Amino acid sequence: MKTDNRLKRSGSFWLIVLVVMQLLFLTGIVLFHYSALWVGKEIRLQTTPVDPRDQLYGDYVQLNYKINNANWSMWKDAEHKAERGDTVYVLLQENGSGGFYEIKGVYPSKPSHASGEVLLKGRVQYANDETIRIHYGLEQYYVAENTGKSLEDRARSGDLVVDVKTAPWGSTVIERIEP
Amino acid sequence: MNRKWLQQEGQTWTQKGIITSDQLQRILALYPEQKRAIGIIPLLGSILVGLGILSFVAANWQQIPQLIRLLIIGLAMIGFYTSGETFRRRGHDKLGVALIGLGLLTFGAGIVLIGQMFHLQAYDVTSFIVWGTAGLLLTWLIKSRYLFIITLLIFTCLQWYNSTELNRFSFIAFAIMVVGLGYYWLKRPNTLLAWLLAASFTIQSILLVTVHDWAFSWFFIPVWLLYTAMDWTRERKSVYPFQAIPLIAAFVHNLFIVLFWNDSNDSSFLKDLSAQPAWFVLALVVLFALSLAGKYRRGRLASGVDWILALPFFYLAHGADAAYLITLFLFSLYLLWRGYAEEWAVKINLGTILFLTSTMAAYGKLAWDFMDKSIFFIIGGILLLALSWFLNRRKKQFLTELHDEEEHRHED
């Protein structure tokens, strides 16, 4: 019985270690994303009308950014073409009118960039003859159930402006949605 | 064997004079009455309370400030783990492990909810791999089948999500699962866990092949690898699911070709299926040799017949379906024969089912095209009934004989 208890006690110790590690992991993700909101660089993004087929009604609003579609002329790799599932790096540059950020180039690996430019990591959703469709993980905006109707209508017609904050270590978070 | 049984049987033993009642008491003292598991009512009560809290939090989630949300997740997780460990220490193992399982689920929910807080779409499965790994470590720490199953589900679902939504296959997740849970299984063999682990392995092999758009037959390399590996284990009693699932997968694959392909079809169907012959056949032959060597070492060379299901007839230009049909029959007959020879009901039952399936496939293939459909079904039904009656009678006879034999042996 004694050894059994001792076994259980050392088991408890490792359980505590494991639980603390899980808590640290969750805290880590939170800090990773908060850090973007605290020190990240703010960029403004323009939305475009959402493809009605993409609509998935739920407790979030589907956002379609202008930077979701990249022209093939932006693709910076002569040898390989981007394919579905590829990770790509999208270089954004502030456009004079309205201060929106727009695509300057799409790269298969991390390029160097000037201080005014911003690099976002994205994933190729699909690529057809005209465009490369890229998702950044910023395409859903969670709202309280049944309150997102007006926001959803506006997202569908594509006249929303989204402020996003991005930190150099790769964390990118929606800060707010402006009309 | 439990204490109650010992108590009842022990009385008979003392009556027959095999042991004295004093000896019985001493034997019984070796098996102290286990602390009663906590009653079902408090368990149900705590589940209801938990569900209530959960639905309340879920309904008001958006109104709760972010910091409070994080606190709720963290506290719920700590609460589940602590109460689980407390119950375990007091001897309520089942309830304790159940609560620890809830703690693990809360960890996963926390990952998802934090993602929602920042309006992030799950973008890759790294955080889910962390979740599964936490489950794996818990399984090792607490040695619980229940946690094993949760962990297996986490890994299987994350791979499913990864391949269907993100069109990727995570080799890291696959490796962690196979090594971590596989090694756990080797230390604590268990039939149920073997079935589940083998099923997950096979499903993930299908995902691996489809995600990469490989020729489908490549799927059989990992599957037969699993089969072969199990020819080398010392454990025999509960290892058979690891070989049964690969065999079932191969059987279904062959059955599929028999049913949905014939010579008049466009042969691109089989071409899409076929891997490059040289490498595929080489890999298969290597596995076959390894498997036979393993079987030979353990003195079970007869079960090498299993491999007829692996014969790659899809390379044939003509008659692939007929060749596969023959393998189906041979395999099910072989299984029936082994079942009777080894006096093992599982094999007899499985062999019966597979034999009936093969017969139906053959019948459907031959008769569907030119027979009136109502006659087709009537004759098919009669055929099925007659065969199953015959096989069942055979089985019953066999099992009664076996029973009688054993009785005789006991009387001698």
Automatic annotation (TrEMBL), chain A:
The entry's keywords: Membrane, Transmembrane, Transmembrane helix
Protein name, per record: Putative membrane-anchored protein
Xref: InterPro entries: GDYXXLXY
Transmembrane segments: 12-34
A Pfam short name: GDYXXLXY
Domain of life the protein comes from: Bacteria
Upper lineage: Bacteria, Bacillati, Bacillota, Bacilli, Bacillales
UniProtKB/TrEMBL annotation, chain B:
Leader sequence segment: none
Membrane-traversing stretches: 37-58, 64-83, 95-114, 120-139, 168-185, 215-232, 244-261, 273-294, 301-317, 323-341, 348-368, 374-391
Record-annotated DUF2157 domain positions: 11-147
Domain of life according to the entry: Bacteria
Keyword annotations: Membrane, Transmembrane, Transmembrane helix
InterPro entries named among the record's database cross-references: DUF2157 (IPR018677)
Protein known as: Putative membrane protein
Taxonomic source organism: Paenibacillus taihuensis
